[in-house]
Each structure stands twice: as structure tokens, then as C-alpha cells.
Design brief:
20% of the residues lie in helices and 34% in strands. By secondary structure, the protein is α/β, with parallel strands linked by helices. The structure holds flavin-adenine dinucleotide (FAD). Residues 35, 48-51, 64-66, 68, 70, 72-73, 92, 110, 113, 223, 225-228 line the site of flavin-adenine dinucleotide.
């Protein structure tokens, strides 16, 4: 069933990523890693799936969109405080729940959104499992949630940046996320659970790299952001 979400504010994350926050309706709950279908114009026909980018414990709902200049982005950008969007959900089952051993999150660009929700949730619950995030971006200024991830109060958390065109201001691997980088950063390959999120091409490439490292499909969970190349 679709319902209305009241818009609160926008938060600019990077030059090409903006978060939109909405009031949380009474009694509404979601699991970290899920998404909603959002219609930015009530009564309009244009909907896209957007993942929650905040933890389920917050008293607001947050979605973070890669700005592409599309009609959908323009409709989001014209939201005013007191306005609303139509929403349906929560939907999806991308999750770190029941993953055994080490959790390895691999995010490509805006694919960070459900992973940021999962990590915020794990931090809130003081989840003791070791977690490594391998986070691929174009460059330093393109890293959404850089400050939040740096300050994440998760006891066993490690953040590995992979940048295609680094300016050198951050410790990072250069290039695209590769089997070599994964092998060098994750000694516990055989006992880890892998959560991959990003554009379909990126998810497919990382799945192939994990396969080349002997990681079976039973160790892998994916969230494909259809709509991006
Ligand atoms: C489960 C899920 C979660 C997602 N979470 C996020 C998120 O948190 N942040 C984010 O920025 N994006 C997310 N996306 C992608 C998002 O829904 C849009 O598809 C994407 O942002 C492109 O929309 P646009 O308005 O920028 O461009 P548009 O111009 O609207 O779309 C670009 C092209 O892709 C096609 N297209 C758009 N959406 C889809 C679709 N769902 N399936 C197939 N083709 C499509 C359009 O027809 C167009 O040709 C998610 C997608 C999925 C499936």
C-alpha cells in the first residue's frame, strides 16, 4: 500500500549525491539494507527504487540519490519542507543478518546507500562481528558518507578505499576493485560473507572476481542498482 512521507530536508553528500530526509510515520519500521519505491510527485507516475541510507533506529527516513539531471532528480530537488512524496515498501532482503564469520561489504559509488544503513544498524546494536568495507569511487570528493564511515562506532570495522583517479589526499588503492585488492585485504576469504552493492556492471565484475578467488555463491549477497550502467 502506498502512503505519503513528509519531506524534512536535503543534505548534500558529494557534488553528485544528495540525501533526502523524511519524517518517519508512526509505527513504520524497516530492516537495514531495504529500499522503497518513491514517487517524488504525489499523483505522478515516475517512481524509482531508492535504498534507505540511514539506520532503522533513527526517527527519520533517509534516501540518497546519485544526481544525474534526470526528471526524477529534478522532482526530488524541487521538494520543499512541508511537501511530500508517495512511498511504497519497505521492500527487499539485502541484509547482513545471519551472515557468519567476517562480513565484507563491497560498494561501488552510490551503491554505498544500503551498506551505510547496514553498518549504522550494526553500530547501534554493537554487533561484534568483524566488518571490512571495500569502497570504490572515482576520487576523494566522490566519497559519500566519508566522515560518517570514518567515525563509525563499530568495534571491529575497517575501511578500505579504492579510487580510480585519486588526488593523493587519502590512503587508497588506485584503480577499480580487483581480485588482487580483495585477496590482499581479506585473509579470511573462505569464512567471510560478502555483500556487494552498486550498478549492475560493477556487481557482476566483483562477483566474477570473487569466483576467481574460489568464493562460492552461497557466500555472496548482492544488491543491483538497476537503472545505472
Ligand atoms: C533495489 C534498488 C535500490 C536502489 N537504490 C538506489 C539508491 O539508494 N540511490 C540511487 O541513486 N539509486 C538507487 N537505485 C537506482 C535508481 O532506482 C534509479 O534507477 C537510478 O538512480 C537512475 O535514475 P535516474 O533518475 O538518475 O535516471 P533515469 O533517467 O530515470 O534513468 C536512467 C535510465 O535507466 C532506466 N531506469 C531507471 N530506473 C530503472 C529501473 N529501476 N530498472 C530498469 N531501468 C531503469 C531509465 O528508463 C533510463 O533509461 C536503486 C535501484 C534498485 C533496483
Amino acid at each position: 500500500m502506498a502512503f505519503q512521507l513528509a519531506f524534512i530536508e536535503r543534505v548534500v553528500r558529494t557534488p553528485t549525491a544528495v540525501s533526502y530526509r523524511f519524517s518517519r510515520p508512526p509505527g513504520f519500521s524497516f530492516a537495514a539494507g531495504q529500499y522503497m519505491l518513491l514517487w517524488p510527485e504525489p499523483g505522478g507516475s515516475l517512481a524509482h527504487p531508492l535504498s534507505f541510507s540511514n539506520g532503522p533506529q533513527d526517527d527519520f527516513l533517509e534516501f540518497t540519490k546519485r544526481m544525474t539531471g534526470s526528471a526524477y532528480c529534478q522532482a526530488l530537488e524541487s521538494l520543499q519542507r512541508g511537501g511530500s512524496v508517495t512511498a511504497k515498501g519497505p521492500l527487499g532482503s539485502f541484509s547482513a543478518e545471519s551472515g557468519s564469520g567476517k562480513i565484507v561489504c563491497i560498494a561501488g559509488g552510490i551503491g554505498i546507500t544500503p551498506i551505510r544503513s547496514i553498518l549504522a544498524d550494526m553500530a547501534q546494536r554493537l554487533d561484534p562481528r568483524p566488518v571490512t568495507l571495500i569502497y570504490g569511487n572515482l576520487n576523494e570528493s566522490d566519497i559519500a558518507f566519508a566522515v560518517e564511515l570514518d567515525g563509525l562506532a563499530l568495534p571491529n570495522f575497517r575501511l578500505v578505499h579504492v579510487l580510480q583517479k585519486p588526488d593523493g589526499s587519502l590512503k587508497a588503492h588506485t584503480g577499480l576493485i580487483s581480485a588482487e585488492i580483495i585477496r590482499s585485504e581479506i585473509p579470511e576469504l573462505a569464512t567471510s560473507t560478502f555483500l556487494i552493492s552498486g550498478p549492475p556492471v560493477m556487481v557482476k565484475a566483483v562477483e566474477a572476481q570473487l569466483a576467481s578467488l574460489g568464493i562460492g555463491p552461497e557466500q555472496i549477497r548482492t544488491d543491483r542498482f538497476l537503472g545505472y550502467a
